[in-house]
Amino acid sequence: MDTTLNVILEYTEIKDSKLDPELIRDKKHEYSVIPRNEMHKNGHQIHDFTGTPATTILSPQHVIPLEKMFAACCGALLTSLFTTPFDLVKTRLQSQSLYKGSTVSNTKSYSSLTSCCQEVFYSTPNMHREFFCHSLDPRMPKQSSTLSCAVTDAMMPSKIAAGRQFNELNGFMDGIVKIVRYEGVTSLWRGLSPGVVMSVPLTVVYFVGYDSIRDSLWKHWKGKYSETYSPLVAGTLARTFSVSVISPIELLRTRMQSPEGINGLKDVMKGVREMVRRNGVTSLWRGLEPTLWRDVPFSAIYWTGYESIKRNYTNYLRNKSIDGNINNFSVAFVSGATSGMIAATLTTPFDVAKTQRQVASNSMKNPSMVKVMQRIFHEEGYRGLFRGGTLRIAKVAVSCALMISTYESLSKFFAINAFLEKQGLSLPKPFKTGTTIVGIVYKNGVILGADTRSTNGPIVANKNCEKIHYLAPNMYCGGAGTAADTENATALISSQLELHRLATGRQARIITAVTMLKQMLFSTDKLPFVAMGSGSLAAMSILESRWTKDLERDDAIELVKDAIEAGIFNDLGSGSNVDVNIIEKDKVEVLRNYAKPNERAHKEQTYKYKRGTTAYLKETVREFIVTEGDAMDIS
């Protein structure tokens, strides 16, 4: 029998550390090791949550920008997957007023039945748009459009009625049901691709930029002035820059989620190209002004509220908790969701105006933000300014909570690891252990073999380590990995097998030992020959070329010896001697140090060098005088 016990992680226990585990766990935005009576010196602004004397504080500088970018990317991907359906229905609700009043009589700008059908209702493949729309010549004059739509309506009244019913969305659940019914479940994630393309770089620039700007302001501003205005200014500047860069992708995503995007990316790109042809490249930033109107106030409100809510909520939990421990993920989640809902409520009118401006017809001029909001208020009242507001608030709450909690948790994880590593406490790392063990089945039994070198990293710790462990009188186990762990594991199995023997009155079977080992190894394979450890490749080449099922005892022993020696000579982690165990039905023979392939032929002599062999700059001779000391008092 042959099996392997591998332990590849080494854990370092922190002893006699002066680190305060409370703040290592709960703080992230501070710096170095600072007594609390010197907190405001050198530009360090620290929120005092505990009132404890001297503590160790973690700094965001411990997290390199690449790790912050990774944390932001993870949060952006997770947020996009969860919130795209919310965003889709919200966009439909906010933009449907541009299509709701469209009838057959107001399609003068369209020259084909296809355009007419798309204007009357949300045409989809399920409603047989292709059959009726493409059966007529798209080059028909404008006067024929009314007749064409009327004919379609008469021929397929149920489909047109369904389309018109679908055109009117009455809230989130109604929108979800109708989109799934007429467009399919996957349509709920329409716009996800450009959304991810947009959200990942946007979030990276936004969050990393916010952290950098806020930390710089914290260093230069003092007191509550810093706590209040640093998040506000940092959020405003970071959002302005990131939104300006991503605005064209935001326009594409919004159009894909609007009624125009039902027919796919091809039609959306066609509309975008037409818009650029008519209005120039700057039209790609059509929604930038309303986006800034929405996002800049949103960011200022959100970050100011988030930092304040997080600080107060953390204080509350610390005072309420018996041991002072808090769940940082839940704190960030609740703080982000609450602040996001407040900011989303106050900026919803700007979001409605942005959506309508971005999905407006290509021929429409770009009205100012004020004019768009005036038109919405005039046509729909104040309710129109908050159309889709409930859905947006829910979507923003979820996205803000997921994004900030993921970002904070990963950033804090990287900060703790970087800080501890900077203090000389290395992270747990996998390490390679050197061993070559083999096992074969031969004509009359089983033979196990192993080398005897034990290593401690690059150092040879033991040249005669025993790697074939006793389990029962008729069972042995070869172990490759950490020697102490394999010895303890096999000793545990051996004691359980002995208890089993005493309870049943007979020797344990192989299957019993294998079942016990599987609880730690999780899987086993029954093979005629096997090699494991760092020298297994060299040993396996010997076994594959020479093993046969009818091997005699002596040939089998030589095969095992040669396989182990191949591992010794080709792997630096394996070495020293060869141990062999022969297990047959009625006896077990243990051959310790059966072969010594690296035994020295002669003892090395001491090295002596004549005076003057090694060059030196000068020679100084000092005379040492040894005198007798005072006599010992033995009276």
Q: Brief overview, please?
A:
With 635 residues, this protein is an alpha+beta fold.
CATH superfamily descriptor of the largest domain: Mitochondrial carrier domain
N→C terminal distance: 74 Å
Shape: elongated
CATH first level of the largest domain: which class?
A: Mainly Alpha
Radius of gyration, CA atoms, in whole angstroms = 38 Å
Low-confidence stretches: 1-62, 102-166
Instruction: Report the strand count.
Output: 11
- Hey, roughly how much beta strand do the residues contain? 5-15%
The CATH architecture name of the largest domain reads Alpha/alpha barrel
Rounded mean pLDDT is 72
Strands in their spatial order, largest beta sheet: 9-3-4-10-11
Q: Please report the number of helical segments.
A: 20
Report the sheet with the most strands, covering strand number, pairing sense and barrel closure.
5 strands, antiparallel
Structural class: alpha+beta
Helix content: 40-55%
